[in-house]
Amino acid sequence: MNTVKLVVLLFIFNCYPSFTYSQELPPQEVSKLITSYKNDLRGPYHRIKWFCEDGTEREPKDPCPDGIGGGIQHASFKASALQLRRANHLFFGEILGGLKPNDFLDRNANYSRLKQYQIGNYLSSVDNGWVLRKAQYYRGAIQSEDEEAWGKDFFINIVADDEFIIQNYYLLRQSLKDIPHNGDDNIAQLMRSQSKILSEDHPSFMDIRIKIHGQPQASDIRLVNNYLQSKKTSFTEEASLAFEDLVKTMHTFYAPIDFKDLKSDLSQITEQNEATASLSEFLKNYSKDATPDQLTSALSNVLYAIRTHITDFKYSKNRLAILDLSNQLENILLKEAQKWDTTNLSDNLYKINTLACATLGSGLIEEWEYYAIASQFTLTTSGNTTNLKQLNAILNTSRSIVEWTTTMVKANYQDEVNIYTKFEPLAYGFIDDRVRSSISLNLGEEVSKLGVLIAKVSNINNAVVDLKNQTTIRGLNPGYAFGKLVVVDGNPEDVSVHSNNIYIFEKPPSDLKPIAGIMTVSEGNLVSHVQLLARNLGIPNAVLSYENLKDLKAYDGKKVFYAVSNQGHVILKFEDDMTSEEKDLFFKKESTKNRIAVPVENIKLDTNEVLNMRAVRAVNSGEICGPKAANLGELKHLFPEQVVEGLVIPFGVFRAHMDQQMPGENKSYWSYLNETFNKAEALRTENSDEETVEAFQLENLRILHKAIINMQLSATFEKDLKANFKDAFKGSIGTVPVFLRSDTNMEDLKEFTGAGLNLTLFNILLEDGILKGIKQVWASAYTERSFKWRQKYLLNPENVFPSILIIPSVDVDYSGVMITKGINSGNTSDVTVAFSRGAGGAVDGQLAETRLITEDASELLAPARQPNYIRLPENGGTKTYYTSYNAPILNDKNIEDIKALAKSIRKTMDPNSVSEHAFDVEFGFKNNELWLFQIRPFVENKQAKSSEYLISISPRTNVDRNIALTTAL
């Protein structure tokens, strides 16, 4: 090989490594590849080839013969891009022509490849072609006519499937906007992308860009033209042309309704049903002279008719045509809704009702969800007035619908966006772009108007710094805090939190360490571990809009005072603005901080054999085992047919193992643990700061945690466990999959719940896995998260003893949590439940189906928006599945069973104090049969709820006050 060839080959391998391995590339390496593609004239492509119908490939000058079915010409992919597909399941610069439709649909990965194509289109629009930045001009790489023909065939194929349409209506309509199939394009997205790019190049354009994104109107064209004229003398020719292109796009977007074209498109549909009749009626009765409110209302009805009758069409070509018309009509509705200016309460309520219907028609909520809340928009009027109580109910329902629409977008795309954001931060804007291009934006504005009016007449106003729109903020849990404000715009799971900070998350993390206060865009569900801990510990907790979060980013890092009143009133102010009363709260709070001792006076550490769960009762909690095992043993006695069998590894077994010699330390595990806490107290006595003390403890506990995991189990214990396992579960260890649940003596104290702090292992089958799992569960009491939560509130954390509850796996269809009271209402005869599909539902902050069940009704508080769930196969481990949202999780029988269970629990678990105590119950349904897994007291922070300060900031309102429907907004 000569020198010149060698240099060329080295260059090729350095720029485009040919991967011969299949391991997944880390995000930083993917990011480097993206940069290389952006700077390459061919992007991720290798060269142009012919791809023939028989699967063969030919050179550009050697077309596929007709005799083998012909073929299409387009670019092939570089080795690095192909490797990303194999190893990372990432598809950059996708070429549709020639793809197998099912490969692109990617059902087994929850349609990931299709969604990535949409995200890629978005990135291309906001980042000058993205990976195709220079390859946009690579002639012949993509043949538009082949892409469009493929797209049409693709949609004809998938819309033939009734189930796919019903289960994925939102995703289907969105994909029609992005995949070429009918000479169409996404004008709305183009307008936003152009304005975004221009604002980045010209910061003085930012205010207009915000207007275009947040409150788009036809008058924005004049704003852009005026800006262009004012800057034209200082602009380059290229900049002027870019603004002129934006104006052209805006003129296209805001062009008057072309009724003639709509009638022509409708005439191509060869079948007649309710959908075509509704559209035909609209085109017959309305013209360009119709008012925005008339058009918006009529279009909402048409969109509703199309959605509810789409599967009435027999032929795919008609289904595709009506769906394309549906997207056209939605674009018209978006523009008309912006023109519709409501001036009084009556107009406002009518518009909210109309747009709520439009969210159903456009796929943002499901049909069953709409009907679950439709009756809540009905007003009982007296003459021309209503009352504040009814208006507040409508406001809460309307806010919920706005939240459900945004969570529908996230449920469909968040997983892919999270993956892309790790190597391409711009991808995070995709979800915001989809929300802004939907009716959710205008509905949110209208709901905010109602909130402002109610706040005005009720004399209730949030006081959150200087935010413009605060009506979207509502308190979930009372409390107050002072600390540094940290605003997290993105995936919260990798954020390292500090206990003295106040955090604003888009979604609460599933494994949250202690913090001073929290606000979230999505509250998760009312009974997740995060929510229960916040409620138990008096941590102020509120929900806000994504717009609020973005506005608050300007104050990231500032010291703030944060309070949530008992009535949900929210205050957030800077340190300098605090009153003397508010400053005194923290002096008093620190000096009177409630710290509790884990009771150990009755603990029996000499019980060191494995117990059958039938042998324990509630009275044994804190004595020989934790409350999970004790209470489940009680439930087994009370509800023998609804509770599984179980084994209990008591405190004494753990304590006996801790007396063994700890490797490398010349002392026992127990001595090492106690010396750690003694040394910590000595450091405090020496005036070491708390961070130094905590760092010392955490490092020692990290060493202890690892040592326990590697601990040798005694032969006597293993023999005892195997014998009891076979007796209880009618199968030898290693043949019956089980759950291992940590069950400490620091859980379910009167002042502290400890919910979700320690480890639960799912569906462990193999003997070795069970034995290792026991040590992992023991060790979980010494993780950083568990230690930090309890260290904050316990006087004697060294006396935390873990027991373990072992129960056989039940592969439930759906599972969740019940609180035997109305969490928000406080009504002790109500029940609050949150359910997700599969096992382990609702406890880790999933967007679960949440309901308030009363004696007479089941009120939907939130539908499920969790795209994935786990099942428990007989061979152990877990298997992930994906779900849709077109049907509720709980059925009528389930709800009746839940009501009956709640009554039984109140009566049997606490017969003398039914009105005062509530319980936190984990359970599930398999084949509509109810199975109980855990029960514990529901612990709330009464000090936070009764705080004089929190009472003082809760405005008193007369909910029966009459409000005229003609009241001006």
From TrEMBL:
Keywords: ATP-binding, Kinase, Magnesium, Metal-binding, Nucleotide-binding, Pyruvate, Transferase. Pathway: Carbohydrate biosynthesis; gluconeogenesis. Its cofactor is Mg(2+). It comes from the Bacteria. It catalyses: pyruvate + ATP + H2O = phosphoenolpyruvate + AMP + phosphate + 2 H(+). Residues 624-947 form the Pyruvate phosphate dikinase AMP/ATP-binding domain. Its EC number is 2.7.9.2. GO terms for molecular function: ATP binding; metal ion binding; pyruvate, water dikinase activity. Pfam families: PPDK_N. Belongs to the PEP-utilizing enzyme family. Catalyzes the phosphorylation of pyruvate to phosphoenolpyruvate. This is Phosphoenolpyruvate synthase. It comes from Bizionia saleffrena.
